[in-house]
Amino acid sequence: MQKIISVIILLLVSLLFHGCGRKQHNFLNFEEKKKEHKINRIILPSTKITLIEQKEEKIKISWKEISHKDLIGYNIYQFSKSGFVPKLPLNKNPIQNNYYISEKKNSCFLVRGVFKIDEQISEGPSSNILCAK
């Protein structure tokens, strides 16, 4: 009997604290919600890596420039041949020119255009992937 009472008390306490740590929803909130719009990456132009040159200890990659009024630069992604594309680019800020010099050999690269549309920063689609030997 004491076990049953203990289980019931435990269930009641767990139900009491069930919502803790979660964001509470106010169903009586009549404020107007902000409309968010997502930019469709498919409609943004992509680029194409055109050249990988290996000179001494460095690799230079070049890509075709994107002609778009909202383009603010490019993000470069570098990864190993057997690895996955990282979530974050090599560069902290978008690169303004259409080439990048890396010191890592045996790497693969892809490039994405970075666009600023309605004060929102968005990446375009990925370029082709080229790997240095």
Features:
133 residues; mainly beta; 3-stranded antiparallel β-sheet; 1 helix; 35% strand
Which helices and strands appear, and what pairs or packs with what?
Blueprint: H1 2-16, E1 49-55, E2 58-63, E3 71-80, E4 99-102, E5 107-117, E6 120-126, E7 130-131
Antiparallel strand pairs: 1-2, 2-4, 3-5, 5-6, 5-7
N-to-C span: 74 Å
Q: Helix/strand-derived class?
A: mainly beta
Q: Estimate what percentage of residues fall within beta strands.
A: 35-45%
Helix percentage: 10-25%
The 3D shape can be described as elongated
Task: Return the string of H and E elements.
Answer: HEEEEEEE
Tell me the name of the CATH homologous superfamily of the domain at 41-131.
Immunoglobulins
Task: Give the CATH architecture of the domain at 41-131.
Answer: Sandwich
**Biggest sheet, open or closed, and with what strands and sense?**
4 strands, antiparallel
Question: How would you describe the overall organization of this protein?
Answer:
By secondary structure, this protein is mostly beta strands. The chain has a domain at 41-131: Sandwich (Immunoglobulin-like). Helix content is 11%, strand content 35%. It has 1 helix and 7 strands. A hairpin with a 2-residue loop joins strand 5 (107-117) and strand 6 (120-126). It is elongated and about 80 Å long. The model has no long low-confidence stretch (mean pLDDT 83).
